[in-house]
């Protein structure tokens, strides 16, 4: 028999809760000499077929990391099988091919993933096998960080307090990263990962390097660099012209690094940084407890804002041509590099939802297409925060003044000049799409009327 470990958002070998448990389960079952763990990965067509471009940088990131993982397994005397297709079809074939005793995974909290995992669990259970799932992607799940009186937190600060208290009490019970590799066995890997992913004309898709991603973002910053960044994080994190944040988001998104490992490290170095990592847990918890946020405001009274939704203005925002330098720089950074500084994500989101009165879901969707670190929970949380309809106490009448943001965080226009080369020349719009005061008044008026009516 075989136990299958299915890699998804956990593309690493070490400190991987589900993989660890899968190997432990096999180890404890000495009587079955044939017993071993088969690691697999599925390039999921349910997701890939919806992407506008097959050569999407995120798919390439995954492909490169699956390849690395496969190499690592080979060094351990094992092999990873990678597939391309619809997960249920692949699972049916796998259950026919092998005598599968159990499937092990790490939990994923997005609605699509929950439904998919349920279908796979049903499939193996119908054949007498078992499906095991573990927490790995975040530190605490929604039933672990609860108010004293019960129920999930909806405000970050008390959530953070309880989260930290939990951590102090339970840190030692988290998987310790011990590598257990004795029970991995090689399996014939008929299809090579590279050949699984092909463009329409059957050419292999390019690697990230070939696509010209300078920063490639497929490398994990060396430890000393991350340590230095985390140490100074509270002083540098708000300045988009500096290398002042860690750029770990894409790795946390795909699990190429372990959140537990980062938390352990951050605890000793910088509390502000810990707090940001906890924001990631917080938004995941919100998604788990309030799945309606996927396409509706967290606060229902915000459901009927009469968005202007001007398509021409939306296009200018997307292209970084609004005439507001810091907004344009942010959007161009996103378009050209697949990443945007957090401070600027807040500014562009505020500008779209408040000044232009465009539905936050339009902006959320655009970010989802473009961000290498795109993650449903954090992206949704960030957008709802900007639009004022989310969890945190950000009243709708607090509207970012983009001029003061510029002065405070990019006073010398270094960030702007890096991304908007024509800034300061006649080619750059002389006027913003909408002037701050006018936009502010209009937003206040529209929000207030809608909320009074709600
Ligand atoms: P650092 O500043 O070095 O932070 C370290 C890690 O902490 C990040 O990698 C991330 O995992 C986590 N983190 C930091 N800030 C936040 C936050 N506000 N919310 C949740 N997690 C956080 N983050 C995503 O990972 N995916 C998204 O799709 C995403 N969309 C966003 C949309 C909007 C409108 C806003 C305002 C924020 C969004 N964020 C998102 C959060 C944040 O901007 C990014 O996590 C951060 O910019 C990534 O860069 P970094 O790794 O250098 O971050």
Automatic annotation (TrEMBL):
What is this protein called in UniProt?
Answer: Deoxyribodipyrimidine photo-lyase
Q: Which PANTHER family match?
A: CRYPTOCHROME (PTHR11455), CRYPTOCHROME CIRCADIAN CLOCK 5 ISOFORM X1 (PTHR11455:SF9)
| Domain spans labelled Photolyase/cryptochrome alpha/beta | 1-139
Q: Which InterPro entries match?
A: Crypto/Photolyase_FAD-like_sf, Crypto/Photolyase_N_sf, Cryptochr/Photolyase_FAD-bd, Cryptochrome/DNA_photolyase_1, DNA_photolyase_1_CS_C, DNA_photolyase_N, Rossmann-like_a/b/a_fold
According to the UniProt entry, its GO molecular function terms are: deoxyribodipyrimidine photo-lyase activity
- Whether Flavoprotein counts among this entry's keywords is yes
The scientific name of the source species is Neolewinella antarctica
For this UniProt entry, which residues form the secretion signal? none
PROSITE patterns to which the protein is assigned, alphabetical: DNA_PHOTOLYASES_1_1, PHR_CRY_ALPHA_BETA
Which family does the UniProt entry place this protein in? Answer: Belongs to the DNA photolyase family.
Give its E.C. classification number.
4.1.99.3
Q: Does the keyword Lyase apply?
A: yes
Q: Which SUPFAM superfamilies match?
A: Cryptochrome/photolyase FAD-binding domain (SSF48173), Cryptochrome/photolyase, N-terminal domain (SSF52425)
Alphabetized, the UniProt keywords read: Chromophore, FAD, Flavoprotein, Lyase
